[in-house]
From TrEMBL:
Name under which the protein is recorded: HTH psq-type domain-containing protein
Gene3D superfamilies with a match to the protein in the record: Homeodomain-like
One MF term in the entry's GO annotations: DNA binding
HTH psq-type domain segment(s): 40-78
Organism: Amphimedon queenslandica (Sponge)
Source taxon at top rank: Eukaryota
Length: 109
């Protein structure tokens, strides 16, 4: 989580909650290394279209060899994310903490 002034705020799990629920800031930790999509696409293109080896392409474009091999072999699709698919759309997921805070403020929870 980034270093910000926490005066008047409280930390609930990984949600930074202001006194006003409309100013809710969601800061989720990054668990996985985020690869540059551009580098991965260039490495995939070099291997598939130009016949470059996976090892050489991984070194040249700075992407992990095992990740590139998984994408080339079809084991993992490009732009695939680890873990199960989301149950809620992004908008609903962002609204859920605000809804729960409103319920807590009126004593429902």
């Amino acid at each position: 989580m980034s270093k910000k002034s926490l005066s008047g705020k409280r930390l609930v799990s990984h949600l930074l909650v202001d006194a006003d629920p409309s100013k809710l800031v969601i800061e989720r930790p990054q668990y996985y290394c985020q690869l540059e999509d551009v580098s991965m696409v260039k490495a995939l293109k070099a291997v598939e279209e130009e016949g470059m080896s996976v090892r050489h392409a991984s070194e040249l474009f700075g992407v992990p060899k095992s990740t590139l091999y998984d994408r080339v072999s079809g084991r993992v699709q490009h732009r695939a994310h680890p873990g199960p698919s989301a149950y809620l759309m992004k908008e609903k997921e962002d609204e859920l903490p605000r809804f729960l805070l409103r319920c807590a403020n009126i004593g429902y929870l």
